[in-house]
Please model this.
Amino acid sequence: MFMFEKAAHGSTGYWAWVGTLVLTLAAGFLTYLHQLNYGLGVTGMSRNVTWGLYIGQFTFLVGVAASAVMVVLPYYLHNHKEFARMTILGEFLAISAVTMCVLFIFVDMGQPARVLNIIRYPRPNSMMFWDMISLTGYWVLNVVITLVTLHSQQTETAPPAWIKFVIVLSIPWAISIHTVTAFLYSGLPGRSFWLTAILAPRFLASAFASGPALLILLCLLVRKVTGYDVGKAALRGLAMIVTYAMLVNVFFVFMEFFTAFYSQIPTLTEHFENMYLGVAGEASPLLVWGRASLLLMAVAVLMLLVPRIRTNDTFLAAACILTFLSLWIDKGLCLVVCGFTPSPLGTMTRYMPTLPEAVITLAVWAAGALMVTVFYKIALSVMVEKVRITVPHYGVTREARVETA
Amino acid sequence: MRERLWIGAGLALFVILVTYPVWHALQAHSSTKGPNLVFPAREKECVAPTSFMKTSHMKLLVDWRESVVRNDRHTYVAFNGKTYDMSLTGTCLRCHDKRQFCDRCHTYAGIETPFCWDCHVDPSLAQRSVP
Amino acid sequence: MKITRKEFLRLAAAGWVVVSGRHLLALLDSPDKGSTAEGTAASPRKRWGMVIDTKKCRKDEGCTSCEEACDKAHNIPAFKNPAHEIEWIWREPFRKVFSADQTPYMEESLLDLPTLVLCNHCDNPPCVRVCPTGATWKREEDGVVMMDWHRCIGCRYCMAACPYGSRSFNWEDPRPAIRELNPGFPTRTKGVVEKCTFCTERLAKGQAPACVEACPEKSMTFGDLINPLSEVRQILGSRYVLRRKPELGTGPNVYYLI
Model:
């Protein structure tokens, strides 16, 4: 049923890639054991900056997971047939992203052995409780969807009628996972940088830019490596989505700037000053990252706005990389650290991830990449098989190994 | 043919792993003689009957924990009518020596007592100077 | 009787769901038992609060009696690395504690004055609201915002939620950094959050918190805010007091006489 055997055959390049990922995982696992042994003090977090890279990555990846809705909604709700060959890739990306989210939360926990206390002693007051529910539910939904659709494609039968309901349910659910994650931040009275109603909309806008950008990159990579082409229309449609989402994102950033700098309220302006303008006498890493994110965002948006660039695959890939990077820095790092700086007592504490922290982070990304690799291998074996049966010469530039059993 | 190598290696690894308890115990020179417990000198009666403590002292401790930490109730009325302060360090360790009583059984049974002693202080530690 | 594999698996799954469902329901926490909101006749409901007289406190600006008393009573570690520091009660300059209450042309020495800060045991604590396991909660009977170090999973959400920076996390094993181990109180372990608990272990014995008792100038007054005859109520009723960031709606119960 799970067809994992399809991922057990591959070229040397495939095994080299999988091997690298497994080695990274192993390194991360050993480093995590060290962290378990010593404590979270191996990271760069401190009494004032109590969340760092791990939670930032979790926040960013929830967005990537939610972005699957940008493919599912047009295809299943509005019959946008151009996305047909891409939806399964988006759903598999969502599953991998949610798994990475859960892993990042897990490695960030001080007492991970007690994590089930959230289930044993549920506290609906806490947004973290709802985050757990929505993330788990979204993961289950996408697993069911991919299992059923892939199975029906493989057997060339129609999927059961109830799957339509599950797919439609996943659409508002996707919005909910990232809204709840934003609620983790935007309901805290003491953190003025996060205490804004626009945080959830900002999260969604950046999610719908960064997620599809990553999906475009993955589709281009898949086409290069296996010849499986999602189609020009699909890529162009997704690129339009990234463009609009980036525009909305930039607009929201300006909204935040205006409220802070026109009202001149110090508790608002100080965060933006730390992140973008610089405070006299403070050369903080946050300033470098913040400015880098803005710069990359600006270049990405300008590139995406030009149709000739957006429709050229190479330039589109570049624009997507810039989009992804700028939002990864903004959400995966700046958002969290900036919220803690200054502290409630006005202290500016620097945060710099340490080596163990970086290795563990890399390992979690490797876990996600491994999942994407294996899932895509399975999906493409099924899809390419099917394509070979119906249109033997379409898009297959390399022989994919076909299971004859 | 090549598969035989993998099968053999896997089988060997499995046998080693599955017999780990045997050769680890052999190497540890553990004996079948029971733990040598040192009982409290003065008190002859515990907060609960010995038979109960043998089976359920952990349940008692968890009940005490819930009562003290979550319900702010500190007094325990024992089976014999006596009252005790519900405290691991203050009551239990007032009579029992952690190293010569608690640890001996736990070590023999292979129980790591995961986190009790991470926080709860063995009174004898306080007498030594801490660097 | 013939049964297909699919049917067998379905029955087994259904059975497993029923059995584990019952177990799960049993595991779910029953609401924290405690005295009712009204309290009993023997112990009526209280609300503990504290008034800190900064004038009395500043008489000896090098004094650290309250901090030392708390450190010793609760095995608080003294880490060399300031990033890992753990503080239940400590001093910050006035300008940082009351950044919104400064006035221009204020006395410089007053701005730098060491001011005591600790958990405010708020009436409406955001830390309690966000805790996913109930490891921190507000006690009904006396208003103390309490910590359960057995349940804390170390997610540090409460630390993000606290508008006062009152909480600390154990980034490493605290025991090596404890100067003088007090067997009368547990240490904590790495991976849990801790803060001032108004010395509930002393309150249970009818004693005032360690810091209040240790202050040589008696600058801290501790008492029941519900009882109109208590000393804290006398002070609050007769003089103007400040609280930290009251505009956030947290309802802090630590008051400052400037």
